[in-house]
């Protein structure tokens, strides 16, 4: 599938199902045009206009965004058979074929959403070549493996402003994700305007909520990009923010205030009062009208049952209804809820806690606690999606998420009929430790690897290929407007008090941020704690260290003078950095916590230099030196200031090689 | 004026007239509030809301944007005596005093515009200190030296979209500039919607123009920030774009098309037809209603008179009216124009070509051809502003602009009464070689140095202080939204075809872009040529090289091991860079032109390393080595690919020192 020539294969992500390359290249210059040659409508024309405008940003070449006067002579001819469904729809035909030759390109699709996917593939083909920007000649046939390819954004723990949501929709469509699952309420915030129950947002959001106009705007924005929007109102737990406005809905008397910390809270809807269901009926009815997608997420996770157990009235209700325990009470609640959701014309989806033998099969299960839940749901006749393994807030490396297949683990044993119920998956961006400024860098580029898992074939699993393409696509995503790369340096500059932040950047490039667990262990966070520290700027995964690891591996495998030079240069930079960093950090509260980390980085640099010297020497390294240094590495790789030093890894590779040689 | 303590003095720019520091610091945290304690209105409240929102971005600390419930207890109490004029007005009171102590801050001003200036000073005081973000205790009394402190943006040569204009207004107000001079028509584009003469924009703009609604929006946006907006419609020359729609206005028969190249064109309004004046009367009337400021710019520059000379009819008219030459004809035109401008209640301003003994003194002269024109105008009773020396498009270093004083040169000899007619100046951002993507990096941060020239005392001239403050303020400007820093890496990434752009960045950091002259000499540009090359990404002035020059100077002056280490590190990086760059550039048309430049940078690196070795040696360097290397430096410092290698400068410092020592 690789192209020959000076350039790497086009950095397509997700990889198409089938691609054949040919010789020749299509020049992409100021005369580039795109036009619909068969079906067209306002939505497709708008998509073509956006596509040309983005290609213009991507290349820096002015292009006329208007449609070609004569479609047959457009550089890219888009032959779309029909509009397809009015709203992006689960399971619709998203396939396309794309042919590029020196004389032009042709994209064919059955629906607008298929054409949208193909346009993104074309944009990824365009790169500078020997004559200027160009797209290589290819024949591509493509269609998704799974129909449900989602990103969940939690707008409750920290509010995520509309422009941030919108730019993430642009990035999602660029990697062919097609579902925004919008987590709109949780203990820490109720983020949608209800006209029926206005105290929900008035007392539950600190003023940070989406108006109904904004919701409609985002839903329309997503539709234009072929993305479904599924709202989640998490019930009966995670409802703390509902209760300042409506304490009578809770299972214990109030008063209540908005949650400021994280975790599983006690406050929970009262499943025994008819008023609860009347409220949910009216509220869900209002929300169902706002979100056109047929699927409606009711959460259902992490119900600790404390308020239920403590309430004599609720326990009495349970006895009367022969509900043996909280689990049965929750199942009772879900069955009532399902009737309400269905009354408003929606299909219910919930987290895997709602799975229960009594739950009708029409309900879709979102599995987050493991792959078994997914397999159980599918085996019991439910359709299901996987989110376990795709939790972006844990800040795992991309290869971790990439290695998890929705049809692996317990799901591998499903019959074909059962396996067909696995609709796909969703990456989850929980927002305890992100806000509008930092969320992009926690989603991108790693979500692109997950997007490939959902779209491309099961056999597309080579991590090295994934990384090199992901890092190229990460740069392309800049032009969609997401700030995952752009936000990095300003956050470091902010900490450096107006001075050149070079030494801080060296440290940040060598570090990797801790996710949810590491941060929760480190200190007492609340939703009001500023997210303006080193750990918030540092990336989940260091690209520059990954490249150093490659160099170390090459240097170990055989003669690699350029790689050795790069390693030596970087180690020397680290070794020299601490002195510079300490000068920068003097009297600066934001940098104070990093002083030991910086010292460790310089120690790593010195260790790396010595390891290089010993590798070049004819004598094996002394065993006691190796064991002392290994202990030191073990110390250094521990979490510090809520980050780890990725820089440990290339040094460790060299040390391991020295140990191997000295055995 | 410097503060003691670990941190440098606050990076205030422009420097206030008077500042006294005291001990103590005001903590700036999540509880920070700002409130008006005397006069207030919607404009001031909006300004306080924006101020807190930006302080929140600048610090990364969530702050409630609403006003403090009790103004007397706000962290920053703003005591504004009155609204001041309805619209920002030339010569209004912009003074303020600002007192910061550990217990709070108080800002006093006579007008809202004065309060706006003080808010920006406060924002610049806030930086991370030993306990977190804080503002040092100070007493500041401040007022501008000149009342007219402008930035001219040419939206004609390349269109500048509204969001780009708006973010530049935010940056302007941050450095206390108070005039946006908006160059709205030129040969290459007519950028405003006229309802009276719609073919102006329909046939003269390629569809890239501001609607009247957008103009009103920008004018209101500027007013909120204390900035006047002065439109310029350049007549009678630079009018090529008027003629595709209205060829009858020209001095020669058409047809005409929009200009695509730069320079002085022949097409010119016909000053002999009454229809010309009727057209200008109606059109200026329409525009005068759109721009509330009393000043109205009619251009008047670069009239080559070719069409006038070639027209028998125009020559006959001149004879009849005893107009001896084109200059007299132009003066006649200007007098007719002045009547029209005044009829619509405006004060005429024009470029210095319009200065003529017959021109009434009410007209304001904008001097761009030299300081003499300014002095002449003031001596002849005109008010005048200086733009000569402030042409940002020449890409001169900040210190060059900073060194030019509106009251120096010929103006130094003016009487006090004449000197008082010098209202200030304007930085000019002509747009032949910038577009919406690159314009910010050509304006900022250098315009901040010019802003200081216009605001601060005449004696504020130390370039080193200016640079260190400008570079800090440059980083602060990120939070206003201008992309002068953010746009750099994406432009390099675009060229690097998705691969890590490290070697390209090393080269770009060491280079400085050529301005108007250098680019015009280099190749045939048109307005359709993409501005996506290395020269477009590279900064006008290299901050990292400036710091290296400092290190070289220190290393020459005395023992400076850290500076020597930094020099050695950077030289080694340059020396190693070419091999990496050539690998990146293979088969890449956008990088091909840079291959010789990259080779030169590596040669410089090697030369720098050798110079350091020779400086450390006890023997003086051989004279023939010095002269050979000096010749090589002279070769290397020539323009190449429309940039120069700033990297030459620190190497030259070392070489000069070696030459001195060997004498």
Mean pLDDT of chain A: 96
What is the straight-line distance between the termini of chain A?
Answer: 42 Å
Oligomer: homodimer
Largest beta-sheet details of chain A: 9 strands, mixed
Detail the topology: elements first, then pairings.
The structure is a homodimer.
Chain A: E1 18-27, E2 34-36, H1 42-59, E3 76-80, E4 96-101, E5 104-109, H2 112-125, E6 127-128, E7 133-142, E8 148-154, H3 162-174, E9 179-186, E10 189-190, H4 199-204, H5 212-224, E11 228-233, H6 274-290, E12 295-297, H7 306-310, H8 312-320, H9 326-343, E13 347-351, E14 364-367, H10 371-379, E15 384-386, H11 398-402, H12 416-419, E16 422-429, H13 439-443, H14 446-455, H15 463-477, H16 488-495, H17 502-509, E17 511-513, H18 516-522, H19 534-537, H20 543-557, H21 561-585, H22 589-592, H23 595-616, H24 623-636, E18 643-645, H25 648-662
Parallel strand pairs in A: 2-3, 3-5, 8-9, 8-16, 9-11, 12-13, 13-14, 14-15, 15-16
Antiparallel strand pairs in A: 1-7, 4-5, 4-7, 6-7, 9-10, 17-18
Helix pairs in contact in A: 1-2, 3-5, 6-9, 17-21, 20-21, 20-25, 21-23, 23-25, 24-25
Short note summarizing the structure:
The structure is a homodimer of 663-residue chains. Chain A has 663 residues and is of the alpha/beta class.
Polypeptide structure, described:
- With 663 residues, the first copy, chain A, is an alpha/beta fold.
- Chain A has 25 helices and 18 strands.
- In chain A, strands 8, 9, 10, 11, 12, 13, 14, 15 and 16 form a nine-stranded mixed sheet that branches. In chain A, strands 1, 2, 3, 4, 5, 6 and 7 form a seven-stranded mixed sheet that branches.
- In chain A, helix 6 (274-290) packs across helix 9, helix 23 runs parallel beside helix 25 (648-662) and helix 24 (623-636) packs antiparallel against helix 25 (648-662).
- Chains A and B meet through helix 1, strand 6, helix 15, helix 16 and helix 20 of A and helix 1, strand 6, helix 15, helix 16 and helix 20 of B.
């Amino acid at each position: 599938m690789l192209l020959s020539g000076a350039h790497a294969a086009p950095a397509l992500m997700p990889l198409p199902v089938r691609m054949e390359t040919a010789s020749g290249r299509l020049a992409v210059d100021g005369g580039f045009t795109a036009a619909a040659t068969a079906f067209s409508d306002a939505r497709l024309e708008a998509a073509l206009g956006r596509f040309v405008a983005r290609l213009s940003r991507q290349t820096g070449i002015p292009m006329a965004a208007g449609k070609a006067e004569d479609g047959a002579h457009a550089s890219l001819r888009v032959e779309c058979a029909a509009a397809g469904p009015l709203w992006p729809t689960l399971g619709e035909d998203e396939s396309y074929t794309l042919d590029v030759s020196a004389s032009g390109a042709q994209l064919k699709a059955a629906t607008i959403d298929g054409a949208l996917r193909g346009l993104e593939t074309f944009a990824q083909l365009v790169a500078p070549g020997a004559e200027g920007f160009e797209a290589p000649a290819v024949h591509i046939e493509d269609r998704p493996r799974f129909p449900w390819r989602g990103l969940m954004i939690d707008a409750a723990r920290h509010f995520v402003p509309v422009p941030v949501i919108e730019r993430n929709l642009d990035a999602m469509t660029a990697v062919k994700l097609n579902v925004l699952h919008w987590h709109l309420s949780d203990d820490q915030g109720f983020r949608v305007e209800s006209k029926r129950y206005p105290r929900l947002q008035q007392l539950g959001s600190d003023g940070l909520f989406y108006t109904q106009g904004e919701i409609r705007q985002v839903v329309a924005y997503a539709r234009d990009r072929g993305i479904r929007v599924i709202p989640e109102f998490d019930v009966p737990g995670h409802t703390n923010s509902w209760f300042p406005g409506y304490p009578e809905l809770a299972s214990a008397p109030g008063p209540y205030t908005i949650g400021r910390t994280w975790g599983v809270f006690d406050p929970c809807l009262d499943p025994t009062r008819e008023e609860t269901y009347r409220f949910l009926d009216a509220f869900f009815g209002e929300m169902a009208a706002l979100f056109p997608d047929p699927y409606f997420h009711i959460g259902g996770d992490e119900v600790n049952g404390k308020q239920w157990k403590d309430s004599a009235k609720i326990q009495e209700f349970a006895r009367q209804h022969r509900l043996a325990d909280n689990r049965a009470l929750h199942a009772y609640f879900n069955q009532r809820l399902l009737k309400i959701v269905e009354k408003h014309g929606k299909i219910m989806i919930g987290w895997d806690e709602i799975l229960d033998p009594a739950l009708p099969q029409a309900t879709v299960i979102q599995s987050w606690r493991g792959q078994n839940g997914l397999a159980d749901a599918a085996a019991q006749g439910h359709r299901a999606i996987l989110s376990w393994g795709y939790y972006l807030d844990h800040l795992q490396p991309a290869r971790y998420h990439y290695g998890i297949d929705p049809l692996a683990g317990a799901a591998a044993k499903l019959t074909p009929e059962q396996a067909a119920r696995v609709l796909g998956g969703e990456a989850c961006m929980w927002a305890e430790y992100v806000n509008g400024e930092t969320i992009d860098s926690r989603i991108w580029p790693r979500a692109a690897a997950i997007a490939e898992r959902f779209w491309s074939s099961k056999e597309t699993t080579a991590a090295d290929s994934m990384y090199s393409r992901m890092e190229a696509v990460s740069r392309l995503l800049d032009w969609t407007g997401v700030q995952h790369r752009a936000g990095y340096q300003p956050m470091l500059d902010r900490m450096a008090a107006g001075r050149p932040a070079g030494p801080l950047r060296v440290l940040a490039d060598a570090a990797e941020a801790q996710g949810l667990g590491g941060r929760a262990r480190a200190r007492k966070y609340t939703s009001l704690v500023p997210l303006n520290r080193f750990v918030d700027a540092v990336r989940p995964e260091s690209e520059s260290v990954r490249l150093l690891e490659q160099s170390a591996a090459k240097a170990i495998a055989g003669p690699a003078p350029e790689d050795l030079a790069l390693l030596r240069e970087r180690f020397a930079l680290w070794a020299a950095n601490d002195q510079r960093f300490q000068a920068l950090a003097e009297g600066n509260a934001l940098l104070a916590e990093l002083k030991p980390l910086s010292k460790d980085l310089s120690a790593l640099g010195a260790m790396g230099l010595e390891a290089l010297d010993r590798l070049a020497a004819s004598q094996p390294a002394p065993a006691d030196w190796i064991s002392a240094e290994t202990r030191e590495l073990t110390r250094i790789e521990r979490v510090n200031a809520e980050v780890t030093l990725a820089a440990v890894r290339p040094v460790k590779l060299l040390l391991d090689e020295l140990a191997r040689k000295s055995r």
